Amino acid sequence: MGKLQDKVVIITGGAGGIGSGMAKAMVKEGAIVAIVDLNEETGKAMEKELQAISPKSMFLQANLMDRENLGQIIKKVVDKYGKLDVLVNNAHASKQKTIEETTQEDLDFSFGTGFYPTFYLMKAALPYLKETKRNVINFASGAGLEGHTTQGAYAAAKEAIRGLSRVAANEWGKFGINVNIISPLANSPGVQAWAKAQPEYYEDIKGKIPMGRFGDVEEDIGRVAVFLASEDSKYITGQTIMVDGGSIMLH
Ligand SMILES: NC(=O)c1ccc[n+]([C@@H]2O[C@H](COP(=O)([O-])OP(=O)(O)OC[C@H]3O[C@@H](n4cnc5c(N)ncnc54)[C@H](O)[C@@H]3O)[C@@H](O)[C@H]2O)c1
After folding, report:
1. Does residue 250 lie in a domain region?
2. What tens digit of pLDDT does each residue of 185-212 get?
3. What is its EC number (predicted)?
C-alpha cells in the first residue's frame, strides 16, 4: 500500500516541471492523478508515463485562464472517479517586468493563470473535499516572499494565493481539510527559460542556495507534496513550506 493508495488528485500544470514531478511521485505512492494543462503534447506524453504506473490517471486539456470552465474540471474528475481527495494548484505563468513596465494585461495574465484558478478550483472542490476530508496544496514563491525585482505581477498573485490559503485553512479546518503552501526552487522548464532570459538574476539566486543546487522536481518537490497530501501531515495547515534548499528561512 502506498501513502496515497487510491487517492484522487488533481494537479494543475501537471504536464511539465514541478507539476509533473509531483504527479510522478504521487502515482508511485498509489494515487490516481488527473493532470490539467494547456499543453496537449506534453500532457498526452505525461499521461502515458503516469498510466504505466497508475492506469486510471488521466490528462485533461484546459486553459486555466478560461474562468467559467474551471468548475467543469472538478466536475469531470468527480464524475469519472466518484470523489476528490487532493487539489494541487501548481500552474502559474507570468511576465518579468518592472512595476513601471507592467500593464493591466500583465496583471491579468499572472492573476488569470495563478490566483483566479486557485480560488475558483478551491471553491468548486470544497463540497467534495468536505466528503474526503483531505488536502489542498497551493504554490507560493520566494519572489513574492522577498519582493524580487521585475516580479511585481507574479509576486502580487503569489502573495494573494498565500493569503487565500491561510483564510481557507482557518475556514476549512472544521471540515478536516488541510490547506498548505509550497514555496519551491526546482530545475523546471520555467526556471530554465528564466535562466536564459535573466542569467545574472538566476546566478544570484543559485549562489544563495545553502544546499548549493536547484531542486529536483520529483525527488525534492514531489516527495514533499506526497507528504502534504498524505495522512502524515494531517495536523499541519495554513503553513508555507519552504522547499528551496534553505534559500529563505522563515521566522
Ligand atoms: N521552479 C521553481 O524554482 C519555482 C520557484 C518558485 C515558485 N514556483 C512555482 O511552482 C509552480 C510550478 O512551477 P514550474 O517551474 O514547474 O512551472 P513551469 O512553467 O515549468 O510549468 C508550468 C506548467 O503549467 C502549465 N500552464 C501554464 N499556463 C497554463 C494555463 N493557462 N492553463 C493550464 N496550464 C498552464 C504549463 O503548460 C506547464 O506545464 C508555479 O506555481 C511556480 O510559480 C516555481
Report:
1. no
2. 999 998 999 899 889 989 998 999 999 9
3. 1.1.1.100
- Summarised one tens digit per residue, pLDDT across range 89-106 is 999 999 999 999 999 999
Beta-carbon contacts of 84 under 8 Å, excluding residues fewer than 6 positions away, are 8, 10, 74, 77, 78, 125, 128, 129, 132, 134
Domain total for the chain?
1
Q: How far is CA 164 from CA 1, 115, 168, 170, 180, in A?
A: 34, 9, 6, 10, 11
| Domain CATH number, residue 146 | 3.40.50.720
Q: How far is the CA of 56 from the centre of ligand 1 (A)?
A: 24
| Residue 93 CA, ligand 1 centroid: distance in Å | 6
Q: To test ligand 1's pocket by mutation, which of 38, 137, 220 has the most ligand atoms within 8 angstroms of CB? A: 38
Region 60-66 average pLDDT: 98
Residue to substitute in 10, 22, 37 for testing ligand 1 pocket (most ligand atoms within 8 angstroms of CB): 37
Query: For 1-24, what is the mean pLDDT?
Result: 98
pLDDT of residue 194: 87
For the chain, the average pLDDT equals: 97
Domain assignment of residue 251, yes or no: no
Residue from 157, 192, 137, 145 nearest 19 by CA: 137
